[in-house]
Specification:
By secondary structure, the chain is of the alpha+beta class. The protein has helices spanning about 75-80, 155-200, and strands at about 1-5, 15, 20-25, 40-45, 55-60, 65-70, 85-90, 105, 110-115, 205, 210-215. The chain has a domain at about 1-115: Immunoglobulin-like, CATH 2.60.40. A hairpin with a 6-residue loop joins strand 4 (about 40-45) and strand 5 (about 55-60). Keywords: Membrane, Transmembrane, Transmembrane helix.
């Protein structure tokens, strides 16, 4: 009656892993001992022993087809003790407990193995051996915490900042020095031009021929008495002296 696990295969030709989802599927009818009950409970049990059982579905029916997605949560302890399991329909009881008495419809036997890469379920008490009691367990995984990465050292960043500041100050200092030198040179040049203009004035003078010329630095010489009016005695007639001529 079971279609998953595949009822067409032999026992233990199928293997499932803790944490995987097994889509349990059955067709309508009853392929088991005695008569079909009206309501049943579905258990997963050890194949060779009734010491371990876990209730999966309570108060359902096999008079019509059904499906149940089961996330395999068998305990590590149960898998390590015995990895052979089977699904079994049993008549419904209240409270729901596993009982060997009465009708039973099993699936094909299969293996369950532990997940090699996933976190192991948290430890749960191992079931007490009993043929008249059922143990309902739920596997919970303990989340693993990832340590936070250590903060990176900032010494490299500090060194880069200090180097940038020093370089910037050096550039500013060079610019200031260049500006001061240029200003000093301009002042010196202005003073030289001013001194030259004071030391060498240009003055006009006449050469006596009616043309004015300019002397660069020295004024034309003056001779005593050449431009002074003097009274002559009566022996000589007065004659007007020309410019630049003596008596």
């Amino acid at each position: 009656m079971f279609e998953q696990p595949d009822g067409r295969l032999n026992d233990f030709e199928q293997t499932f892993t803790v944490g995987d989802t097994l889509g349990i599927k059955w067709k309508a009818g009853w392929e088991g001992s005695e008569t079909q009950p009206d309501f049943v409970d579905l258990f997963v049990c050890w194949f060779d022993s009734d010491s371990y059982s876990q209730l999966l579905i309570a108060n359902t029916t096999t008079k019509q087809a059904g499906f149940y997605p089961w996330t395999i949560n068998v305990t590590d302890a149960a898998v390590k003790d015995d990895d052979k399991f089977v699904l079994r329909f049993r008549p419904h009881r209240d409270p729901e407990d596993y009982n060997n008495a009465g009708p039973m419809a099993p699936s094909r036997g299969f293996y369950i193995k532990l997940a090699s890469t996933s976190s192991s379920p948290s430890p749960t008490p191992t079931p007490t051996p009993s043929s008249t009691s059922s143990t309902v367990v739920s596997a919970t995984t303990t989340p693993t915490s990832t340590p936070a990465p250590e903060p990176e050292k900032k010494s490299t960043n500090v060194g880069a900042i200090v180097g940038g500041v020093v370089g910037g100050l050096a550039v500013i200092a060079l610019c200031v020095i260049a500006w001061l030198l240029m200003r000093l040179l301009r002042r010196r040049k202005a003073k030289v031009v001013e001194a030259y203009e004071v030391a060498a004035p240009i003055v006009p003078y006449s050469d006596g021929y009616g043309a004015d010329k300019f002397a660069a630095r020295i004024e034309p010489p003056k001779y005593p008495g050449s431009n002074i009016t003097m009274e002559l005695d009566g022996r000589e007639l007065p004659v007007e002296a020309g410019s630049g001529q003596g008596r």
